[in-house]
Amino acid sequence: MSKNAKHDIKQLRAIGHKLNPVVTVAGNGLSENVIAEVDRALGDHELIKIKLVVGDKAARAAVAEELCSKTKAELIHSIGGVILILRRNSEPDPRLSNLIRRV
Predict the structure, then answer these.
(1) For the segment 10-46, what is each residue's pLDDT rounded down to a tens digit?
(2) Alpha-carbon distance 92 to 45, whole Å?
(3) pLDDT value at position 2?
(4) Three-state secondary structure call for residue 4
(5) pLDDT at position 102
(6) How far, in Å, CA of 18 to CA of 47, rounded?
(7) Model-level pTM?
(8) CA dihedral sign, ordered 24, 30, 34, 40
(9) 49-75: per-residue pLDDT in tens?
């Protein structure tokens, strides 16, 4: 990992620290509605926090990986039951994007 990439991740984690989870994945797992809501939130905000209330650490990691795969997002950080994911938008809305508003 390059020095710039480490700096970028550090900056994204700092932005994400101030965010509240926008979606909670619970007992029903990754339903179509949950995936659609995460996809919509990523389109609006680019960087979002998601709360995972599913099983143990391995189950949370599997759900996070599947969610990122289905939404074409990148996992930035995972701690406990909360993940921070990113999907950059080619034309972000400055009023909604967490990357633009927080900088």
Answers:
(1) 999 999 999 999 999 988 889 999 999 999 999 999 9
(2) 8
(3) 60
(4) helix
(5) 59
(6) 11
(7) 0.90
(8) positive
(9) 999 999 899 999 999 999 999 999 999
Token pair belonging to 50: 């998601």
Domain architecture of the chain: domains with CATH: 3-101 (3.30.110.60)
Residue 22 in tokens: 């926008």
E strand intervals along 26-99: 47-52, 74-79, 82-86
CB 50 within 8 A of CB 96: no
Which of 43, 29, 22 shows the shortest CA–CA distance to 86? 43
Which residues make beta-bridge pairs with 49?
Answer: 21, 84
Nearest to 38 by CA among 58, 24, 53, 18: 24
